[in-house]
């Protein structure tokens, strides 16, 4: 099995977001950059499939120089090689041009059996890459998977929906996106971290992937980014628990009008 | 005439509320854009839903009623929506950001080579073009985005856009569509884990529990209050990671982002990634014994107290309230 995993580097989920002076981005100093948690599930799943069936795991990431540390983290977990797609043309890229770059880099890995992604990149929260690259690569897709089984050249995956799960079956190769619950990602061992430094990490630009400025032109542009409006100060409800309970219900009904 | 296309998701023969919110929003935008509203509904038996879509504002409804489209499949359904788009040349295409819409919309965006803004919470028309507001970093910030070309694709967060008032005298023209119904990835079976329960992302009221409950054996206190209020049950990441409850219940940055009318946080201190996922709720109640818990900073009402004492009393008071209102 050859498995390609898409990896995005994102700010740690504990990051306190501050708006940059341009009003369109966040302040990146002091941000602790991590592998998007959903992508960690994808890397872990790829490694488990490789351990069970043999094969190789290739990571692909689109991003600036710092994205290489996310790829090194994945290599330290056990992936075999990595491709870093880096190009000034991709600096303002939204989901669609990013997906074009990923799809081109993945296509160059053919033949492969499976493409795994996180179901969403933490931060941008677009949840678009898996479906976009599946269509661009003309592959079937199963998104938001909490269980994946591979046998006889097919994949069976459980996909989370409102109030339940669907069991999907698909031919391979396919694109499958990982949801929390799929697995518990491993920590990289010291040996893994040392070994990762020697694993192949190839840097490619847009031209090498056959993409030009027109292909990578942004489709959705951020005009402004702002913090949510501050919430009004809290009203503390006093008294013993029974009094507090009654008073809260009264206020929710009469004042807030939400029950 | 310009058009706004909406994808209408049906579930068990009925339109999802989020589909009606989507067509209501399309109707609202149609005035400013001088556009007609066209909806797409897929699946056998769905022709019967065209009337309801019409009453909420659709002028035309594409119905793909092929028996082979009986259960959702990304590839064939994306083909159907893209075909309706090819025939209507829409300026705008709207999807509900449901599990299905989230799976389908990117595939359609790639087919149309068009930009998609996901999980929008507000849309408006400026100089004839759409501008959207959407949460980023799970709601720690909001982005205002615009499209560089057309069609402009957006998915709409359920529970945020108001439903229009249905007008049964409005009739939609029905257009029957056919499409290649094959798909390589297919649903083999459905396991409904929590049938009948209120869903987190669609709930008007959510009661969530955190580490203050001390152990999974006490989580029934949260469920008891949720039952009394007709609410969905949520949880903090700490208790999900500790294995007390299923991750589907997690509210926060690696879980669900929710905006109910009422959110009751029980024994949740309010880690930044949790606050991100719920602070756009209309009214927030926090029950916690730590006066310095960050959850009180986003709450409208706070009870400084022990969840073990407060929750049963609150369930009682809520029960009495709802009983008196029938």
**Mean of residue pLDDT values of chain A:** 96
How many E strands of chain B?
A: 18
Q: From the alpha carbons, calculate the radius of gyration of chain A and give it in angstroms.
A: 22 Å
Strand content of chain B: 25-35%
Helix content of chain B: 25-40%
Radius of gyration of chain B, whole Å: 21 Å
Helix content of chain A: 25-40%
State the order of secondary-structure elements of chain A, H for helix, E for strand.
EEEHEHEHEHEEEEHEEEH
Largest sheet features of chain B: 7 strands, parallel
For the termini of chain B, the CA-CA separation is: 49 Å
Number of β-strand runs of chain A: 13
**Envelope shape of chain B:** elongated
Based on Cα principal axes, name the global outline of chain A: globular
Structural class of chain A: alpha/beta
Task: Return the average pLDDT of chain B rounded to an integer.
Answer: 95
What oligomeric state do these chains adopt?
heterodimer
What's the total helix number of chain B? Answer: 9
Structural class category of chain B: alpha/beta
Strand order of the largest sheet of chain A: 9-8-7-10-6-1-4-5-11
């Amino acid at each position: 099995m050859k498995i390609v995993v898409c990896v995005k580097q994102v700010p740690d989920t504990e990051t306190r977001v501050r708006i940059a002076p341009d009003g369109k981005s966040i302040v990146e100093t002091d941000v602790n950059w991590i592998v998007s948690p959903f992508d960690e599930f994808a890397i872990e799943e790829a490694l488990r499939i490789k351990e069970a069936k043999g094969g190789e795991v290739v990571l692909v990431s689109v991003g600036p120089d710092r994205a290489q540390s996310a790829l090194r983290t994945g290599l330290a977990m056990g992936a075999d090689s990595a491709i870093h797609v880096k190009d000034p043309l991709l600096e303002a890229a939204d989901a669609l041009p990013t997906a074009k770059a990923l799809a081109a880099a993945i296509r160059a890995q053919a033949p492969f059996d499976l493409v795994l992604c996180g179901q969403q990149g933490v931060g941008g929260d677009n949840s678009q890459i898996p479906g976009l690259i599946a269509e661009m690569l003309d592959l079937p897709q199963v998104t938001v998977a909490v269980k994946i089984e591979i046998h006889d050249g097919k994949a069976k995956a459980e996909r989370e929906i409102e109030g339940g799960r669907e069991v999907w079956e698909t031919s391979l190769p396919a694109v499958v996106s990982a949801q929390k619950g799929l697995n518990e990602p491993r920590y990289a061992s010291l040996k893994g971290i040392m070994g990762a430094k020697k694993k192949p990490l190839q840097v490619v630009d847009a031209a090498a992937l056959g993409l030009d400025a027109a292909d990578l032109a942004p489709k959705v542009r951020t005009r402004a980014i702002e913090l949510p409006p501050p919430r009004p100060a809290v009203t503390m409800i006093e008294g013993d628990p029974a009094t507090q309970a009654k008073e809260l219900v009264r206020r929710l009904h009469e004042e807030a009008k939400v029950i | 005439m310009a058009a706004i296309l909406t994808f209408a998701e049906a579930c068990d023969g009925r339109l999802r509320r989020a589909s009606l919110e989507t067509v209501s929003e399309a109707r609202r935008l149609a005035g400013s854009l001088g556009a007609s509203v066209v909806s797409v509904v897929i699946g056998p038996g769905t022709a019967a839903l065209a009337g309801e879509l019409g009453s909420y504002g659709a002028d035309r409804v594409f119905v793909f009623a092929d028996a082979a489209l009986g259960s959702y499949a990304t590839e064939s359904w994306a083909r159907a929506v893209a075909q309706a788009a090819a025939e209507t040349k829409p300026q705008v295409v709207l999807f509900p950001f449901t599990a299905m819409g989230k799976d389908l919309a990117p595939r359609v965006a790639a087919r149309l080579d068009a930009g998609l803004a996901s999980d929008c919470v507000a849309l408006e028309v400026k100089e004839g073009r759409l501008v959207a507001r959407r949460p980023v970093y799970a709601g720690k910030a909001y982005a205002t985005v615009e499209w560089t070309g057309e069609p402009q694709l957006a998915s709409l967060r359920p529970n945020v856009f108001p439903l229009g008032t249905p007008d049964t005298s409005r009739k939609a023209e029905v257009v029957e569509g056919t499409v290649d119904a094959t798909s390589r990835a297919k649903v083999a079976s459905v396991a409904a884990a929590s049938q009948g329960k209120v869903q987190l992302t669609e709930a008007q009221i959510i009661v969530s529990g955190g580490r203050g409950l001390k152990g999974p054996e006490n989580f029934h206190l949260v469920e008891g209050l949720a039952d009394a209020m007709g609410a969905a049950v949520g949880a903090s990441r700490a208790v999900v990671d500790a294995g007390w409850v299923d991750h589907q219940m997690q509210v926060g940055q690696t879980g669900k982002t929710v905006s109910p009318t009422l959110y009751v946080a029980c024994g949740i201190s309010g880690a930044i990634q949790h606050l991100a996922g719920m602070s756009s709720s209309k009214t927030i109640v926090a029950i916690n014994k730590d006066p310095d818990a960050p959850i009180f900073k986003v709450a409208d009402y706070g009870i400084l107290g022990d969840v073990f004492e407060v929750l049963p009393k609150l369930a009682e008071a809520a029960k009495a309230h709802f009983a008196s209102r029938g």
